[in-house]
């Protein structure tokens, strides 16, 4: 999950396209909008699970290195994967918070 593009699935792209169509005045059907929300939820859930797995794998590699069972190169690769995963997760979190704050500022 070190690549930010891995966070985006085809379903999420289709959902974003449908959302952009609704914003431009074209109507999306209710069922499609519901499916889009489920796809987004699934995408976020899968990305979160993949992030956690990467972090857990990195921690396991570091523990193995402390026991003398892993090579230094493996530890460096695992730590780099963890670092990029955490950076992407923090970036996504910041975007979610920013979007939430923007919604709160919208007049009713």
UniProtKB/TrEMBL annotation:
Keywords: Bacterial flagellum, Cell projection, Cilium, Flagellum. GO terms for biological process: bacterial-type flagellum-dependent cell motility. It comes from the Bacteria. InterPro entries: FliE. Pfam families: FliE. The lineage of its organism: Bacteria, Pseudomonadati, Pseudomonadota, Alphaproteobacteria, Rhodobacterales. Belongs to the FliE family. The keyword Ribonucleoprotein does not apply. It is found in: Bacterial flagellum basal body. Its main location: other. It comes from Thalassococcus profundi. GO terms for molecular function: cytoskeletal motor activity; structural molecule activity. This is Flagellar hook-basal body complex protein FliE.
């Amino acid at each position: 999950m070190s690549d930010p593009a891995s966070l985006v699935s085809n379903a999420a792209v289709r959902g974003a396209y449908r959302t952009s169509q609704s914003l431009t005045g074209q109507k999306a059907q209710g069922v499609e909008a519901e499916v889009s929300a489920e796809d987004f939820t699934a995408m976020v859930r899968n990305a979160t699970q993949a992030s956690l797995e990467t972090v857990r794998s990195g921690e396991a590699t570091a523990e193995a290195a402390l026991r003398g069972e892993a090579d230094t190169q493996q530890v460096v690769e695992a730590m780099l994967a963890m670092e990029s995963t955490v950076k992407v997760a923090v970036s996504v979190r910041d975007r979610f918070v920013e979007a939430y704050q923007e919604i709160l500022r919208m007049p009713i």
